[in-house]
Amino acid sequence: MPRNTLIDYFDDLARAKGQFLVYDDGFRVRSHSYMEVARAARGFSGRLADAGLRKGDEVVFWSENRPEWIAAFWGCLLSGVVIVPVDYRASAEFLARIARRVAARLILIGEDVPPTPEAPDIPVWRLHELEWRDGAPPAVAIDRDDVAEIIFTSGATGEPKGVVITHRNVLANIVPVEREVRKYRAWARPVFPLRFLNLLPLSHMFGQAMATFIPPMLPGTVVFMRGYNPADIVALIKRRRVSVLVSVPKILDVLRAQALRAAPAAALPPTKQPWVSRWWRYRQLHRLFGAKFWAFVVGAAPLDAELEAFWSARGFAVIQGYGLTETAPIVSVTHPFHIQAGSVGKAIAGVDVKIAPDGEILVRGENVTAGYFEAEAETEKAFEGGGFHTGDIGEIAPDGRLFIRGRKKEVIVTPEGLKVFPDDVERVVNQIPGVRDSAAVGVTTGQETGGERVHVVLVLDPAVDPDVIVRDANTRLESHQKIRRAVVWPQSALPRTEGTGKLKRAAIREWVRTGAAPAAARPAADTLTALVSKYTGRGDLSPTTTMDELGLSSLERVELMVALEDAFQARLDEKAFSGARDVGQLRAVVEEASKGEVEPLQPLQVPAWNRSLPARFVRRMLVPGFILPLARVFAWVHVDGRQHLEGLKGPVVFASNHQSFMDTPVIMAALPGPWRYRLAPAMAKEFFVAHFSPEGHGRMLRLATSLGYYLAALLFNAFPIPQREAGARQTLRYMGELVEDGFSVLIFPEGHHTDTGEIDRFRPGIGMIASRLDVPIVPVRLEGVDRVLHRTWHMARPGHVRVTFGAPMRLAGADYEALAKQVEDAVRALRFTPDRTSDAQGKPQLSS
To answer: What is the DSSP pairing of strand 58-62 with strand 82-86?
Structure first.
């Protein structure tokens, strides 16, 4: 069908069937179909119209990858509203500068961004609070040459350039890809759906293309996740049966280290064998990622040849492309079934690539932007002499394949694919007292692959400490611009060209790379400083060396954290780790974990088999036929508040005070049938210590404890929950899986039985559960269960018990102590009302 504007692709998206977007926030997974996304986009478009936004108005997006980003993106396109995406890692000040520059009418923000600066004249909407409802988009005429997006290059001090992207530009990129996809779509049906794990920011055009336009052509599923922990990435790829990982080259480097740790056979040297033989040779590695995973799609930064060879030799396809924001973004891409090492593929249809006499790559085509936002001089310079000047040096092979040989522009490209302009860094550094002159250059150290880090060469006043300069500058620079290392130029002035006075950056960069290379790091006093030195290239560490001074990116912090966990065999508290301001505080975090306060790294055993169809059948037979009748012999249950469950859609979290080992069957007896058989109670892992840690326990105790654990898991669908922090992330993840499968969770936030029926303090874990799982919390109060079976008794005694259900609560925020207190207060406030009581079958009955 003809493709006149991007709206034609939306019509296809709205008709597509199946799962489109999956968001895994590390605790819970939320899935949305194509139909749901289309409905939400139409609803968002209508909401924009109701707010007074019209065609041509600008909306700034500042958010991490999440399904609501995609829905809002399409909602803006349907309304003719111009999208201005900002990288979620940018600062609030940069966001404010961009919003003022385009006179934005609205700012959309996500959960993982800093607090927005006060801008009373620009309303702010939270993307994660977007309502997934339908609506009627306004009747707007959209043309091929209408502006769809303005994407700004980042800069700390200078005015960033805004690349103007039209519908025509994007169509010129994706229509040729669609034609190619159609050739293979019929053959690929046996392996559908293709699932893409997209780790590229949606603020980048390549990330948008791989998440927004290409998947509906198949159709495919796009998975988003929070964080870059390599173990989490690998686990998610296997768990969600991902086929393709879309990322920057740095991720491939991080995953290689993880693969060599988790699958030692991956270190075997490659051989020139057929693909099937290679797959068998590295079967341990393929089992690690899962049977469906087969390809990496890499963009936004150069891919190191050795890194490409590592994954290719082990049976994975490594697909890379070349492009820029100005080319919307693809210029060339390697064909998945015709990959040549080192090449970024052939130019896509409709794109003309030429090599200028000086080796610079020039691009022509409808995909190329018409220019920069309100910057005529910059636009004229970029198209001087005809064709868009990419600033990159390349060669074209006789068969049309493009090879990138270097970079003409002075821009520094980090391993994460983010661009750093030397002028921006130098402008900050030169304002610091004691700095006479500076030059920012990109240098790849021995620890880096596929990108550069910012180094500065300084001319300083006497007695000025360069580390102080770096520390001061890094507090003012964006995260990707932070300076890795500073060196002092040995002469009184930096080398410059005569006449123009421009810095001789090539000579300075070469001097840093060779003559000013850091001496071998002195022997580290301990493992921690050795690891920090390894990942920063610095040997002059002290307890007061700040994390900003080290200049680690977010991905490198993850690498360092994983390396520390591996070296010390302890699970670090991620919040404490990210909050460490200097090496001394980092040491304290590691030492706390090494004391045994955090358990050694090992997978928490959580049952999955008890949700299988056979287990559910056994439970459906035994619970009403044996468990509940036996419980009712002793516990004469009186129920109040079940009206709060009427009309409530699960799943929910039931939060109850804890009196007895009979609490769970009593609550199950009080619940209506539809809730009772979709319940998963939490049980203290420490109660089954002989099962989870059999060392030092007798055979009979191990047998009895294991039998009790498996019976509890089978008969009650119970799962273990640790009382200590270790394993909490895995347990919360398991709860998320339960909720995803439609099971409600029963938890006792006190963490222990009370002696006399009193309600003790609720632990903050319930606050975290309420906030992270984002499901209603139903408070439950038990009375009298301790008088039927006290925790110190061996035999139950018949008696009356009361169960009161409260109104469901919605909790949000990161103050888990305060949230837990809200739940505790709600449980305490519940009082049994005799005139509204009923027995477990729902018949009116007075309490006694």
So the answer is: parallel
